[in-house]
Please model this.
Amino acid sequence: MADFRDHSAVIINEFNGLWDRGDVDNVPLDHFTDCENVKFVGDNSFKTRDGIGISQDVAAPLQNVKRIYNYPTQTANTLIVLTYTSGNGSIYHVVDSTTVYGPLLTIAGMTDFAFVPYAGRGYISPFTNYTNGDLTIQKGLNGEFLYVYAGDGTAARKAAGVGMSGTPTAANGAAGHTDAGFHVFGFVSETSSGYLSPPTAFVTFTTNAAFSVSFGSIPTSGDANVTKRYLVASKIITNYNGDPTGYDLFFVPNAIISDNTTTALNNISFYDADLLDDASHLLDNYSEIPAGASLSLYHDRLVLACTYTDESLALVSAAGEPEAINQINGLIIVPLDGNPITNAQELRDVLYITKRARTVSYIDNGDVPSSWPLVLVDNALGSCVHGISTVLDSGSSSVDYLIVATYQGISLFNGRYLTPELSWKIENYWRGLTRNDFYKIQILHDPIGKNIYIILPTNKLLVGNYANGLDPKSIRWSVNSYLMTVNTVAIHNIDEIILGADLVV
Amino acid sequence: MGTYVALVGTTGTLTGGGLMEDGTGSTPLTITDVLTILRANADSGGVGSYVRNLALAGAINMQISSSIGTFALDGTAPVTFNNLPAGFTVDSAAIKLYQSINPFPPPPAFPDFHIFSTFGVNSLVTPPGGLALLSASYPSVPTAIELYTDTISVSVSVADGISQTAFFYGFYVAGTYSINNYTFTLTNNSPVNAGDTITTTPSGANPIDPAQVTGITVTDNNGNVSHPAFTGTASSLTFVLSAFVGTPTVLTFSITSTQFSGSVTLGKLTTINFVNAPGIYKIVSGQTYDILYDVTNPGTTLDVKIPDPFWKTGYVGG
Model:
């Protein structure tokens, strides 16, 4: 552009997003002091943001949406949705635009929930806000538990479960073989989700070497979700002390009742040497797992953190058994500092657990979780309950870092918080957010679109476009507003961004 | 599209000069008598009982009641004007008036027959003598809607004082119709505020006539109704939103006209008070507006504009 009179042209041909750092007079020309509802195109251009459309095409779409999670099932990529009406939180399974299951679970006071998909099932933990002095904290809902949903539209049920009650009978069966001597026998039930109950329904019997063992009056479980029952037995006991749970119990090979109705199991033969699969650990498992504010997966184990009574406690399940959490050695205690655990996330085989201003790590050493060594990562930076980005449907990172919402800003984390943080350019904006409202923040990473979406406590959507590079200098920030109050974001079907809005009262 | 026959009603008012008598010579006649004759012989080809106006020039002014006049659509049982389907629009109309004239003494002067309406004078000239079918086609005659909203006059004029006798046998209007031949598009984007100028663009096979628009109705989601003044042309109508009552969130606009029956919805717009649209949404790449759930009318949606995008640069200068 040619000069006009003695005025030199100032050319602005780059638009690199919002800048809110330091004095407004120092905002670079290629940045905005303020902007809203714009979207960045290519390297240097921008335009009006994309519009939104309805996601449900039904006569009565879900309203008062509080939280949405991506839920991959065996056959489709779906959504799990929490609505909150008249003091009750209700969870629905949105299969597609025209199919909704639910409510799967309705709990009074459930204003938020943690969710993790596993083997096609969904594990649900209700939580809500509590006050601790001036702080608003999130903990598992008082008196509530972890629930499991089968993904088929049936109601969610409490995870884990109790053993059967009753006393079976034992007698010599047909000709067979055992190691003759005094044994303790019991039964373990298995639910449709693979949970094994503690051994119960004990009976003692002295076996005969030439005969098998037959059992009668085997109790059935009062839980309609039980699909199998297993016989467990001790090895020969020389001096029985009267406590059947004081002995190691093992699954007896081929001693399975594949239903919840049969009351007899006949002609079981085994040697003590065949008893290899230990069932004793089941005795110490939670029969009902308390609700927590955080759910995640680490090394094929379910990690539930921040129960109502133990804010610094994380419960870790057995590998491959998300409902089997040992009450003794399945516990991780994060150093107590008066703040609750907010989040947990795996990165490069390490489990990172955050509080609002602290981050620690644990490494699976192959032994029980309570033996895992603690490493203090950062004593100043942590995250909020939805402040660690999830990607696609994996619930974890897609690249070699996490994107974390800390009090300092939006940071890249690769084992330590990288500085400067990604939100360096909008430092004033981020630090102007109310800390007590950080539980409203939800962060989502879209690696296909090269965008980071952050639901803000102001019910707006902060968008960081990193098409020019994922670093504090190249990222371009903008803010999106809508006519409704957006409070949750999710991604499914690879790159479809889903927003949830609730009713303004 | 279909066909209709509109018969004169059974009540109205009769004013004007001349001596009216029926075929038997019984005088005077009431409007009911006249309408009965005209109705009974609606398409008689000029035969049947008649009424006649003797001697002097005068106009038989028949204002037909809109609640009584009947339309028979596609040969079905007649319905009153008020019970026509919403959006009924006359596409064509031929007014048929069976009459004859018997001058005495013979011409040289012949009377003119006129069908008058306040929409303008339409002169129809009949050949001398015998039965004649006066017909004229829409739009040069009043529309069927107008027949029932205004006065139709049938007159006989006589020149040079020569007495004439005019015989009237039958009267009706027939033609084709369609339903809601007009569509309207609101050019404004949501949200709107009191004082905003709203523009709607009509389109249809028959051009909208702003002069026949009888009103614009604005109804909010709380049931409050207003009727703003409007101006317009055949291609656009504009009006200004009056002050809101309370804090409405959705406004529904409709229009009434004598070109069609009932009212036609122009569309909906949200107001600046609209903040509640709970539900699940998705970002649609390339879409230039937002589609929200309309909580005031479950099962429907609202198209709203994206809240004003803006950007501010840093300080330019120094």
